[in-house]
Amino acid sequence: MRSDRLPRHLGVNQVAQTLEARQSTGLPVIDLTESNPTLVGLHYPPDLLTPLADAAALRYDPQPLGLPSAREAVSREFHRQHLTVPPERVVLTASSSEAYGLLFKLFANPHDEVLVPQPSYPLFDYLTALEGVRAVPYQVSYHGTWRIDLDTVQQGLSSRTRGVLVVSPNNPTGSYLHRDDLAALVDICEARGVPLIGDEVFYDYAVDRPADAVSVLTQDRVVTVALGGLSKSAGLPQVKLGWMGWSGPVAQVEPLLRAYEVIADSYLSVSTPVQQAASALLVSGAGIRQQLQQRIRRNLAQLRARCGAYPSVGVLPVEGGWTAVLQVPSVQSEEALVLDLLQHDGVRVHPGYFFDFPKEAFLIISLIVHPDVLATGLDVMLRRVGGPPA
Ligand SMILES: Cc1ncc(COP(=O)(O)O)c(C=O)c1O
Fold first, then answer.
1. 338: CA distance to ligand 1 center in Å?
2. In the chain, which segments carry CATH 3.40.640.10?
3. Which residue ranges does the chain devote to CATH 3.90.1150.10?
4. Which fold has domain 50-284?
5. What is the pLDDT of residues 56-90, one digit of tens each?
6. Nearest ligand 1 atom to alpha carbon 230
7. Does the predicted TM-score (pTM) go above 0.85?
8. What is the percent of the chain with per-residue pLDDT over 90, rounded to a whole number?
9. Does residue 222 surpass a pLDDT of 80?
10. For 193-214, what is each residue's pLDDT tens digit?
11. How does pLDDT run across 331-346, given as a tens digit for each residue?
12. For the chain, how are helix, strand and coil distributed in percent, rounded to 5?
């Protein structure tokens, strides 16, 4: 007996089964999908989390939107990104995944819909379903660069639409939101009276950022919520601190924040130690962010160099984020290819279909893996997928 909010089939897919089988027999796996920053050989100063033990956290002061000192610290973080979000418009969460759930509770009734980009982050299907909401995809299409297909946004609208989501840079396409696309999305949201939700968790990880890339927060015509968090901005997913920055017309935002407070007050999920430590962690987390930024650039250079020797393998442009997309010959299905790589070569990569790519064959790899792991994995992988080198 369980609710329809959960997927009908809870079983693991074939790729996950194969991975488990390989690991259980002790065979090594060269994991080119590793996106957990704490597992890729970065240097985390051993005293980094000392601020979590601050005695100030011995006092519990439940504040649904977050402690003022932590909201001020996040407001400074937005300032660092050249964005203006006053502390009163900052709301703390335990993670951005949780923020989605809280926002869907605020904006949508059961069976309502939110528009989500495709290809994008696979968790959207779960995050929406768990709130009884339907994710309606719109397309992000590749024509040399990835851009939002605005016609498909229009086509996805219905009387049940309760929000438009945008991810910038998008995972896994790495594409940023462009100024004119933002203007078009704002027009749509304004006409429909629905909020714009911008997932900007990878905002700091620019590689080849277009000159007209913008944050959703650069306008305040419609109710807008930008999501961020320590998980990505400081490589600290285990600390569990996310945030929302709100913008939009005061007359709409203020009542929504009061309603949101009721939801947040029912959970009070952000721990006091992390809120007390927020200011210090945001400052010291810059060191991890810089290591990640360097790692991504170095890995991308290596990826391009190695793939460059195989004319049939293309590395799609990366504007930002933590992932790279490879286009490979479509001689077998992505699933068969990914299984072959895992079973026979011990190399793990994600298939494009995992992120709902509209056609085959794409492989997705993480750009934060250890450079030695990337080198070994690519050598093996390219021998299988790339055909003869040039
Ligand atoms: C686009 C995107 N948004 C949100 C998240 C989740 O971040 P958090 O750890 O803050 O829940 C991820 C995690 O990979 C992501 O890729």
1. 24
2. 50-284
3. 14-43+286-384
4. Aspartate Aminotransferase; domain 2 (3.40.640)
5. 999 999 999 999 999 999 999 999 999 999 999 99
6. 10
7. yes
8. 93
9. yes
10. 999 999 999 999 999 999 999 9
11. 899 999 999 999 999 9
12. 45, 15, 40
Q: Flag the least confident range among 48-52, 233-237, 308-312.
A: 308-312
For ligand 1, say whether the CB of 277 is within 6 Å of any of its atoms. no
Q: Is 175 in the pocket of ligand 1 (CB under 6 A)?
A: no
Where does residue 125 rank: exposed (0-12), middle (13-18), buried (19+ CB within 10 A)? middle
Are the beta carbons of 288 and 236 closer than 8 angstroms?
A: yes
Whose tokens are 């790729």? That residue is 15
Q: Is there an atom of ligand 1 within 6 Å of 334 CB?
A: no
**Candidates 3.40.190.10, 3.30.920.30, 3.90.1150.10, 3.90.550.10; correct CATH number of 14-43+286-384?**
3.90.1150.10
- Evaluate: CB of 167 within 6 angstroms of ligand 1: yes
The predicted model gives 136-165 an average pLDDT of 97
DSSP-derived pairing of the beta strands 323-327 and 314-315: antiparallel
Looking at residue 63, its pLDDT comes to 98
Tell me the two tokens of residue 285.
């987390």
| Ligand 1 pocket: which of 116, 232, 322, 350 to mutate (most atoms within 8 A of CB) | 232
Whether 199 lines ligand 1, by a CB cut-off of 6 Å, is yes
Indicate if ligand 1 lies below 6 Å from the C-beta of 75: no
